[in-house]
Amino acid sequence: MTPLSFRHFPSAEFSTSRKRFSRGNYSREVSRVPSLVELMLHRGRTAPYCDIPKSHPSKQYCRGIEIEDEVRTLPLGKMLRENTPFYHHYHGDPSIRERTPRRRRDQGPKVMYLTSATLVIVPANLLSQWDREITKHCSIPLRVLMLRTKTPMPSVKSLATDFDVGL
User: Fold this and answer.
1) I need a labelling partner for 16 at 20 to 30 A (CA). Which of 23, 62, 66, 78 fits?
2) 162: domain range?
């Protein structure tokens, strides 16, 4: 599900998610048909076209990457990045043997973002080597995030959307 579909789509799946998320405070909203732009933004994030060449990338594939980079700078690209797929993880009821905390507030579900990024954890002295090896062995340019000790951590949404590899 995407933020756009969660807020606006009238199907039963999204309606049920909204009801469960609001914990009974759900007021029936007027269902509307999503616009073509909304449908395409949802489709672009939930079923992206991923044709990765097996050997060296073709000119057509490289041009596709260039177009994708150009779209990211447009207002539509910003809307696409903000529409990061997610799901809600609800904490179940405690089992018979599990204690419940006394002052437990119902915090609602956790938002779990979906991503195809890879996280690689390496010792600090090997970070530069990993960066060089990725550049050397990947014919397709990757968006790599190198986190060092004093590097500020990007937001979770940014990690899920803006990077292919995190070191």
Assistant:
1) 78
2) 115-167
